[in-house]
Amino acid sequence: MLLALVMMAIFVTAxxxxxxxxxxxxxxxxxxxxxxTALYAAETAAEDSIYxxxxxxxxxxxxxxxxxxxxxxxxxxxxxxxxRRFIVDVLADTRTxxxxxxxTANVNQAAEVESVLIEWSSGITMDVEISEWNGSSLTxxxxxxxxxxxAPCTPAVINTPVSNAAYEIxxxxxxxxITDLIVSVFETDGGSGNPVQxxxxxxxxxxxxxxxxxxxxxxxxxxxxxxx
Length: 228
Fold this sequence. Notes:
Structural class: alpha+beta
CATH architecture of the largest domain: Sandwich
Order of helices and strands: HEEEEEEEEEEEE
Distance between the termini: 88 Å
């Protein structure tokens, strides 16, 4: 009798443990399935953003902020298109960052930009080329080269020739990667004074949700310049 009770207790305990494991695996599988569906909803919102911005030319700031898929999954998204600074964490060697200074209300103007301040934490050489947009074509105003001599590197200041013209600025890393690249624009010469809002790559944060599970995707979509 004693042996039978001991064996029965062992079997009951094993059954409970096995049942707990099975229930846990089923729950994890269900959560995983819901998470995949939520991720699909987030990807749908992100891909829709790219299509509407690039293919249809829609303003990122007026994109729909939420939606529902046929399977019941929901998505939300937030878009940010302007800022007082243009930031690139790492600009790899020979790669180029493009900053477009123009007024969305008048693409031939740059919202009274008088100067550009470029800050960088480390790097070897930075080549900066600035071109002016006259409404039909870009005219290069020349390029300048800046060498990093310390940590952080000495900031570069570029004064724009005309405050009411639109500009394209190309920053290229030469000889090594540039880190913590920050570009700010101002209403006065010398890289100081009142900052000006600048068009930046659109940051889209898309979040999908399905039956309590959430997944999020963040992407940066370059803002198309008026000169293509």
